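Thread: "does anyone have the structure for this chain?"

Original post by V.I.:
We have the sequence but no experimental structure in hand. Need at least a predicted one for the grant figures.
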Amino acid sequence: MRIVDSQPLNPLQRAYLLGRNTQIPLGGVAMHDFREFYCHFNACELETAVSQLAEKYSVMRTLINEHDLKQEILADVILNIEIVDLRECEQQSVQHELNHLREKYSHSVLPLERPLWCMRLVLLPKNMNHDDKHALLFTSFDGLIVDGYAVAILLSELFNGKATHQVMSQRQTPPSYFTNNSIDKAYWQDKLANVDSITTLPWKRDLETIFSPHYVRQGIIIPKRLWQAIAAMGAKHQLLPNSVLSAALLEVVALWANEHYLLFSMPISNSILHQQLGNHSSFIAVEYRANTEVSFIEKAQTLQKNVLNAMAHTTFSGIELGKLLVKKTAKMITLPVAVTNGLSWGASEYEHVDYISGVTQTPQLALDIRISQTAKNDIAIDFDYAEQALPALVISEMLSTVEQYLLAMSSLSDLQSVAPPDLCTQVTAKASGLPEGEPGSEYVAEAIVDNYLEQIKEHLYGNSNNNTALIYAEQKISYATLGKQVAKIINQLSALNINKGDVVAICLPKSPEHIAVTLACSLSNIIWLPIDMGSPIQRIQFMLANCQADLAIIDKALDYDGINTINIDQILDNPEVSETLECQPLFDAEPGYYLYTSGSTGTPKCVVMNHLATANVVAVTNQTWQLTKADVLFAVTPFHHDMSIYELFGAMSLGASLVVPTPEQTKSAMDWSSLIAQHQVSVWSSVPAIVDMLLACAQPQQLLSLKLVSQGGDYVKPSIIEKLRQYVPQARLFSIGGPTETTIWSIWHEISPFDKDIIPYGMALKNNRYYILNESDQHCPNFVIGTICMSGVNLANGYLKAGEINQHDFAMITNPEGETVRVFKTSDRGYFRDDGKIIFSGRKEGYLKIRGVRIASAEIELSLSKHPSVRDAIALACVNPQYASSELVAVYVTENNQPVSTNSLRQFLQSKLPNSHIPSRWLQLERMPLTGNRKIDRKQLKVLAEQRIYQNYTDSNC
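Reply from O.Q.:
Generated one for you, tokens below.
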């Protein structure tokens, strides 16, 4: 082959060449343009037309010298044409073969040793002709030799048989935007100075783990009349058609992006200016923020300004620009999204040829948003995407929203009135626990038919009350015995003038007496508050004062300022207190009991719970889990924790038995397994860390009685599920969840054998509904991470502060049906899967979950900062690689970097916080890492802490 000309590859060509390497992320593909047409060509006609085209345009005679990094032009034409004759085949076999050929050719990587284009002509049977067109033509062009403009010109001349382009010099002039002049370099360095993140769409997996991706296309057509109406409105505001359309597309796509932020590439080409065909492309980087407080016109104008400014500084190549972003973000894939605007290529008006479909693929692109004109001057919007990177449903919903958005826009008289794209009608309600067809707010008390308090009363005082209620320290306490204790407590409270709506604090250890007080308060409509007796006295004092407790029931001499106390033994051992009962437990949404949880202000928050919400959980859970009075439950959870509420009320409402470990047994997983085997425990509910401990200590035969295991309050590890299936293959497995403010648990998922890598958070319990909202309280589409929110009967009444209920973190939103509903905004983040199940994706900064306990880091940080030697302190949840579970870590800086013993810090915190809030690991630094905004960089701090602590940490037992 005789070479008549050659020149070095430009930066983009080198990048495309590197992109063919299967070892780089989103690599192993060619920059390939594939299209499919119905045509009238026979083999000879096609060869003649292509030969003339190759004689005229040197790009059709260009191959790539990989060794010398040059593109070389051949003197002679080489035809890369294949003929596939299917004229004599049956229609069914023809269709099968076409699918095979289409898949093969659309993703082919053309060999560098020949000119990088190819035509495949498929001759069809007569009964498959299309409007007298008897063949299909597959065209392939590699971006190493041509850009989008060149492909448009080549196809136009091939199909129309006449020149549409004036041939200039055969020697291609390198475009100026590869010279990297210093002014343009400085522009981009300044422009990208504050970029610290890349576009994050709902990727199916980390883009840097995807190799040799497979690309597919979805697209829509926007009719000419609609588009012209939008363009005319844009012109009134000095907006180019490209700018209006691009802004509309980005406004929609940003709804799927993290923080509604997009950083994307936009290809540019000088081919039109130089009147040369080839690869004269580079790209610019553009930012877009879909800020709902800024009008559409302002955003479109800003986009237009940014693009035009960027195009004035193109001597700094896109490849160099990409290197800057790699250095800034520490990511290999920095621009995974591109917007390719082909409106300047003109309409694809071909004679005797009908375009069918196509697809492009580009190395290191996960999504290419392509805009072009059809033969009828309609607008084609195509999304070419890597299947391994994005779900097909996400793409179809994006395009559907684009179509609706542009349709709505075209009906306006002015772009000033363009509203943000509304996704309410796009979001499914599959995570609802409501009957199918019911709107989100339709839940009523009558739907909950089981008054669990009346059921408990019946078991305590009915005819079958000799059944075992509690098992404690080898004692089996019958419902009758427990009922007598409950009656004595109720009568004693009445004698003390503690009545409906008054508050009793239960300051007792985990014991049958604690349970008796809880039941007594519930049956007599007295608000009860379980106190964590492991908390410092000052914290207990705050909790009692905040909820304005009228009485504290204790088991040892304690002095709480301003609070009346009575010893539980004084009640139960008093023979003068009656054991008969007269009470009528109410079944409503009035305050029923209080639970404290960690607060972001540095003090614990008091959540006001009610018996209607509790009844919903108890009734739905007992029914779904198919439990009866023959079941035996295990009270493994501390009684001040919300999961314990079901262990007690679930068991008592059924007339079932509840195993209560003694204080010594509470901390021993070996004792748990012995108790399970001894008493044939059938139901276990706890946080995952406790399940992990149980499995580590139990013998498989000790757990054979378990028919159901549920875990909640923290991330459920697939490894635990795998071990459970080995130990208790007969058991049903559930993940359960929902913060204290949504009552015990309000979302769940029965774990199936198909749940291997990810255990779903699940779907709402009956009479509740979950939502995923962005920062503007808009509903997130499927797969988009946002704040998890819940509405429904399970909602708590609010927070109690100084005796008054407030609604902090509760809000009113509009649900997808347009109704206003009250929700709780959790500190959790997640997304809807396409089956309606929610997948948990982490927590908002400042909130941690350690061994199932929700902790606001501010509580620890504020307390630790009061130590006289501590200047700065941050609390983190770090993953211990030995146990693959989270630990509470304190990172601190001292005054003048003086050493401080971790024992002194631990003791200091123990005087202020409960044991659950005491860090198990400590790390002293000279200074905290900071973000560009001079704030403490918690993400970097966590990485640093995990690196140092688990190599050289101060053990919690030091």
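V.I.: this helps a lot. The chain has a mean pLDDT of 89.
O.Q.: and The domain at 3-160 is CATH 3.30.559.10 (Chloramphenicol Acetyltransferase).
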